[in-house]
Specification:
461 residues, globular
């Protein structure tokens, strides 16, 4: 018996309607990318290992899909490593490339490689798939699309303001309610590490703190202890867990804890500027909230950090995120190039819109009209009309076979094609078309001009 085919775990097929819905989201995002002045680029699906590894922290590195070298990939592995079954050492001989983990690091590589051809500040957007060897669950896949926008070559905080407004405009156009844009600052996190006398544990501290919403305060404290941070240091962090109020009130309370703490105070001043300018422009569909535990656990953020939370009723967590990464291109040899960017989680946005039934009913890209085939002579007359309708932007089809009319009507019904046209000897003789509304069953005879006007809404002579 043949094995039942299936997709690899964490990947999916997309049927026609699903793809139409995904394209609807992409079009909304892409429109705003263009309105904000971003230019499109694309990068390869896989990169050299040394481009990706070491850019996402230990946890991120473990989730990178590595690609086996072509040919006899075991031939280059020294015998002593093979016999020792040391997979870590063997990996250096087995694989030289990996599927991209995100779009940001490949973008940094792109900027360095093409720096002489770019005009800075350079604003790019990129909509392509990425891969992560993660545990699949609701809203989390091993292959998924990211929709990224970045600016490199400017340290101005106006860029952060623009990205927050970009998020707001996209979700407003998607009519997705109750979206929260959470913001924090890497300098504030560094300031907290100074407050705890744990500067050397900054990465361990931020990785654990970033999990607060998922595992709770007690579990975070335990993880901090497990990562070598003392209880005395953790006790100094406790006041931060108790900070409450609106955006400005939280910063004021934090400011009192950071007296003499240069890094923390700089982060506070930058967030004050960003919040004030966003407030001056106004948010249409989102709420900006300061989240002092937001860390996003990635090594390359150096300034503001953003994460977008879906409506709580959807239950999928973040649907976007990003931040400033001043020194990312430095790892590829290009120093002093500041960058900031955000990403939209296409798959999770899809889930949110589907769960809340927010996709428009007219989103399907289905055929608008099907011409019934009564044989080659009638089909030739119908086919000429099909081509003319297509030239006017109408999605039209001729049924390919001269099958029984009932079969052709059943096809139209299953495809949700709203209109069917019959063309027989009488129609050809009178130069007309018989149109049937599949929903109401109503039929009427129309000239081509009248038929076309129903779909293209124009006065056709």
């Amino acid at each position: 018996m043949a094995q039942k085919p299936n997709t690899p775990k964490g990947t999916r097929d997309f049927a026609t309607l699903e793809l139409a819905k995904r394209n609807y989201i992409i079009d909304k995002i892409k429109t705003q990318f263009k309105h904000f002045g971003f230019q499109a680029i694309e990068t390869p699906a896989f990169e050299n290992n040394d481009t990706l590894l070491g850019k996402y922290g230990d946890e991120g590195d473990r989730l990178i899909f590595k690609i086996l070298n072509s040919g006899d990939f075991l031939a280059k592995v020294p015998q002593d490593i093979l016999q020792a079954k040391d997979s870590a050492k063997a990996a250096a001989y087995l694989t030289e490339k990996a599927l991209r983990y995100d779009l940001t690091v490949p973008f940094a590589r792109f900027v360095v490689q093409h720096q002489n051809d770019l005009v800075f500040p350079f604003k790019r957007y990129q909509i392509q798939p990425v891969w992560r060897a993660d545990r699949p669950q609701k809203g989390r896949f091993r292959e998924f699309y990211q929709c990224d926008a970045d600016v490199v070559g400017s340290k101005s905080l106006w860029q952060e303001v623009e990205f927050i407004l970009l998020y707001d405009r996209v979700f407003n156009n998607l009519q997705l309610p109750s979206v929260t844009i959470k913001i924090n600052h890497r300098k504030i996190l560094s300031g907290l590490a100074v407050l705890m006398n744990a500067e050397d544990k900054l990465i361990d501290f931020t990785v654990a703190l970033d999990k607060l919403d998922k595992i709770g305060k007690e579990a975070v404290i335990q993880e901090l202890l497990d990562r070598g941070i003392s209880q005395q240091a953790i006790d100094k962090l406790n006041p931060v867990f108790d900070i409450s109020g609106n955006f400005s009130e939280k910063l004021t309370q934090l400011e009192s804890l950071f007296q003499g703490n240069r890094s923390g105070l700089e982060g506070i001043q930058e967030l004050k500027f960003i919040e004030a300018q966003v407030a001056a422009q106004g948010l249409r569909a989102t709420t900006l909230r300061l989240d002092l535990t937001l860390a996003r656990g990635l090594n390359y953020y150096t300034g503001a950090i953003l994460e977008v939370a879906a409506p709580a009723s959807v239950g999928i967590g973040s649907i976007g995120g990003g931040g400033r990464y001043d020194d990312l291109t430095g790892v590829f040899g290009l120093k002093n190039i500041s960058g900031v960017g955000v990403s939209f989680g296409l798959d999770r946005i899809y889930i949110a819109l589907e769960t809340l039934r927010l996709f428009p009913e007219t989103i399907s890209e289905s055929t608008q009209v099907l011409f019934v085939n009564f044989g080659d002579t009638d089909a030739a007359y119908a086919f000429d009309a099909v081509q003319k309708l297509r030239e006017k932007g109408v999605i039209a089809e001729l049924y390919p076979d001269a099958a029984k009319p009932q079969k052709q009507l059943a096809y139209a019904d299953k495809r949700h094609i709203p209109m069917v046209v019959f063309v027989g000897e009488a129609e050809r003789k009178n130069q007309v078309f018989t149109l049937k509304n599949m929903k109401t069953g109503e039929q009427k005879s129309l000239t081509f001009a009248e038929l076309a006007a129903l779909f293209v809404h124009e006065d056709i002579a």
